[in-house]
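step=encode ok
step=design start
structure_in=
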């Protein structure tokens, strides 16, 4: 489940808050001030959202956002380390690259399981042709 799948299930104002809080706008350059956000959701203060941040629902949303960002960070680290190892290999960098490759392989296996499960669900949709 992606963060966008979760967002679809939330009320519109909560969707906007999650996008505002974690900068999940499709236009990554979009920066919104708190005042602009409050105007968009027609509220006078952030109190409602600060209370919501203490709920299990918001904590689960946060973990999904962080997992998404972690995947992006993993890619950036891999690219940076790959360049470093290619240009000036040293034992520590090579060891780190091997550990990173192992971590990527674990993520890959989980992704394969996820998509295999989704393929099975698609085949099992009980539609009659």
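sequence_out=
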């Amino acid at each position: 489940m992606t963060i966008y799948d979760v967002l679809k299930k939330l009320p519109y104002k909560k969707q906007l808050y999650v996008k505002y809080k974690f900068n999940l706008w499709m236009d990554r350059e979009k920066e919104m001030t708190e005042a602009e956000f409050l105007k968009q959701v027609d509220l006078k203060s952030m109190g409602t959202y600060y209370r919501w941040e203490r709920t299990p629902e918001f904590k689960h949303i946060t973990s999904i956002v962080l997992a998404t960002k972690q995947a992006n960070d993993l890619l950036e680290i891999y690219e940076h380390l790959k360049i470093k190892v290619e240009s000036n290999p040293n034992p520590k960098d090579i060891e780190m690259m091997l550990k990173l490759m192992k971590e990527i392989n674990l993520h890959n296996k989980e992704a394969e399981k996820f998509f295999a499960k989704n393929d099975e669900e698609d085949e099992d949709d009980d539609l009659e042709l």
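step=design ok
step=annotate ok -> The longest helix spans residues 91-123.
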